[in-house]
Amino acid sequence: MTLLSIALSLIVLILLINACKIHPFPAFLVASVCAALLLGLPLAKIPGAIEKGIGDILSSLLILITFGAMFGKIIAVSGAAQRIAQTMMNLVGERKIQWAMMVVGFIIGIPLFYGVGFVLMVPLIFSVVYKYKLPAVYIGLPMLAALSVTHGFLPPHPSPSALVILFHANMGLTLIYGFILAIPAIIIAGPLFAQFLKKIPAQPLDTFVADDLSEDELPGTFNSFFTALLPVILLMLSAYTQHAFPPSSPLHQLFTFIGAPSVVLMIVFFYALFSLGVLQRQKMDILLSHCTQAIKDVATIILIIAGSGALSQVFTSTGVSKEIAAYFSTLPIPPLALGWLMAAIIRICIGSATVAGLTAGAMILPLIQSTGTDPNLMVLAVGAGSLAFSHVNDSGFWLFKEYFNLSIGDTIRSWSMMESIVSVVGLIGALLLSIVIH
């Protein structure tokens, strides 16, 4: 009866989002109330459970997401992203242009949210396509594969960051493991898979070919790379130094403070304002207005995460999470594979990688605790599952289709398959890594 109640609640969530076209936030709240009623939570306790779930998850993520969005916006509008792209292209030349696009997508994808990175990078893809007379999908897919992997695997992106907090994982270790898994996933789903897509006819729309900033308007190469990669540097440095010094050491406490994700994002945001704003003689009122717009752009993501927190708390308050964990622990499936599978099923049904990752995370949490599964690897397994087979119910599918002017069939052959390859390679990598580190 418990599993049936959960299934009905998830069906309500899927129908509200897909069939009724209701925003995921109210859909999550309605599904949470349905789950609470079906699972026997007293009426008087339902509002408190929902409010607690929203508050608990946002208390840790609100700073991270808002400062991350503003930081990414500065990287984009200052021309730092364009400088990084140009530098990589000049280093490798036309013969290895795919690999350059992949590396640029990975570097840009670390600080930028997926939607921002997509819109920013697509004009660069099209400019290369027109300049060298190359197939658009063949050139563009490696870069977009890199953007997708950073979105699903790496903090400080919303879903992996939320999963780190939910699973009580270590942000720095998750980032290191994420890099290890991301590299083969991007290579296989990007340059290697794209070799089979050269004959897909694509006529990118001229509307999406944007003008570049002039050379004298761009920041320097070192400044651009260092600022974009600073959050990664601080998180990885903190993960190392916290183990290098005893807990009572002032240096340990200092690096623990500096390495807290919310502190890292605050530091890099204000550094970016200085390095890409003040030093570049940008008008601060214009730059800050871009930052304000960035917060508006991620408001929907924040609401989706808040809604998922409500559903998670309902599962916790009713005790159903422990019951799910006890049931699934008897199945002959490794916990990492199970987390991946749950996220993949929800992703295919709903379309949103963020919703899929957070919903699966709420259901798999007790199993992590009962089986002793590495929470850092579970973040990556669930994140990989949340990218599985993007299709017509995913906004990313339509972004790719419309920007590249493809048919639905060719979009499935290229985009949907690329996302699926990333997902499967991520799972295999997490399983292999669990053997190595244990």
UniProtKB/TrEMBL annotation:
<feature type="transmembrane region" description="Helical">
    <location>
        <begin position="340"/>
        <end position="365"/>
    </location>
</feature>
<feature type="transmembrane region" description="Helical">
    <location>
        <begin position="420"/>
        <end position="437"/>
    </location>
</feature>
<dbReference type="Pfam" id="PF02447">
    <property type="entry name" value="GntP_permease"/>
</dbReference>
<comment type="similarity">
    <text>Belongs to the GntP permease family.</text>
</comment>
<feature type="transmembrane region" description="Helical">
    <location>
        <begin position="222"/>
        <end position="242"/>
    </location>
</feature>
<protein>
    <submittedName>
        <fullName>Gluconate transporter</fullName>
    </submittedName>
</protein>
<keyword id="KW-0812">Transmembrane</keyword>
<keyword id="KW-0813">Transport</keyword>
<feature type="transmembrane region" description="Helical">
    <location>
        <begin position="136"/>
        <end position="154"/>
    </location>
</feature>
<feature type="transmembrane region" description="Helical">
    <location>
        <begin position="254"/>
        <end position="279"/>
    </location>
</feature>
<feature type="transmembrane region" description="Helical">
    <location>
        <begin position="99"/>
        <end position="129"/>
    </location>
</feature>
<keyword id="KW-1003">Cell membrane</keyword>
<keyword id="KW-1133">Transmembrane helix</keyword>
<feature type="transmembrane region" description="Helical">
    <location>
        <begin position="29"/>
        <end position="46"/>
    </location>
</feature>
<keyword id="KW-0472">Membrane</keyword>
<feature type="transmembrane region" description="Helical">
    <location>
        <begin position="58"/>
        <end position="79"/>
    </location>
</feature>
<feature type="transmembrane region" description="Helical">
    <location>
        <begin position="174"/>
        <end position="194"/>
    </location>
</feature>
<dbReference type="InterPro" id="IPR003474">
    <property type="entry name" value="Glcn_transporter"/>
</dbReference>
<feature type="transmembrane region" description="Helical">
    <location>
        <begin position="300"/>
        <end position="320"/>
    </location>
</feature>
<feature type="transmembrane region" description="Helical">
    <location>
        <begin position="377"/>
        <end position="400"/>
    </location>
</feature>
